Amino acid sequence: MFDMMKMMGKMKEVQARIKEAQDNLVNISANGESGGGMVQATVNGKRQLMSLTIDPSLIKSEDKGILQDLIIAAVNKASDEAEILAKESLKKSTEGLLPNIPGMDLGSLMGG
């Protein structure tokens, strides 16, 4: 028979684990690079840019457009990787607590 109190307790545990996983996203670090490593970006699990490294040879006024494109590419690669790592982290945090429902996207629970 369905035990509503047990289910409610389980949901509170799931909510606590999801909040903990969300809070820990700042500890996830993902890197992206472009231009053969001439531009490197690091993004955390909340998809915030944490560091940016630019090869000094790129810092010339005539290369401004190329540099901007390389920065965008590196940040986007790091951001995409951070999203994947964040979803994996959330999935591990709630493993065994939630039923495996096809099509259920836990990414929406973490604001992703």
Structural features, described:
The protein is of the alpha+beta class. The chain has a domain at 27-95: Nucleoid-associated protein YbaB-like domain (Ybab, Chain: A), CATH 3.30.1310.10. It is 45% helix and 16% strand. The protein is built from 2 helices and 3 strands; from the N terminus they run H-E-E-E-H. The protein has helices at 4-23, 64-93, and strands at 29-34, 39-44, 49-54. The chain has a 3-stranded antiparallel beta sheet with strand order 1-2-3. The longest helix has 30 residues, at 64-93. The radius of gyration is 19 Å and the shape is rod-shaped. The two termini are 36 Å apart. The relative contact order is 0.18.
Care to give the gist of this entry?
Homodimer. It is built from two helices and three strands, in the order H-E-E-E-H.
Labels describing this entry:
Ybab, Chain: A; 112 residues; 3 strands; alpha+beta; 2 helices; three-stranded antiparallel beta sheet
Helix and strand pattern: HEEEH
Approximate shape: rod-shaped
Helix content: 40-55%
Counted by DSSP, the helix tally is: 2
**Superfamily (CATH H level) name of the domain at 27-95:** Nucleoid-associated protein YbaB-like domain
Question: Could you give the distance between the termini?
Answer: 36 Å
Poorly predicted runs: none
Derived structural class: alpha+beta
Q: Tell me about the largest β-sheet.
A: 3 strands, antiparallel
CATH topology of the domain at 27-95: Ybab, Chain: A
**The CATH top-level class label of the domain at 27-95:** Alpha Beta
> What proportion strand?
15-25%
Got a strand count? 3
Q: For the CA atoms, what is the radius of gyration?
A: 19 Å
Mean pLDDT score, rounded? 80
CATH architecture group name of the domain at 27-95:
2-Layer Sandwich
